[in-house]
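Sat 14:20. Reprocessing the chain from the morning session after the first attempt stalled halfway. Input below, unchanged.
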Amino acid sequence: MLTENGEPIFEGLDAPTLFRQFASECVELAQSTPLPEKRSLYMKMASVWHQMAVRWEKKAKRELAHY
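Finished this time. Tokens:
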């Protein structure tokens, strides 16, 4: 499914919102595990999901600027 401006929608959400939800879930997992190595991995995953959301938004802004 696409939004009015042609952006894809996943699970009823725009991509940056969904990516931020994934990041939030990773943070929750990090907070709930007693293992430091898993906590570190989940926090790295959260960081990557957040970066993906930011990049997606920047890309969308650049594309809108060209129109």
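The longest helix spans residues 36-65.
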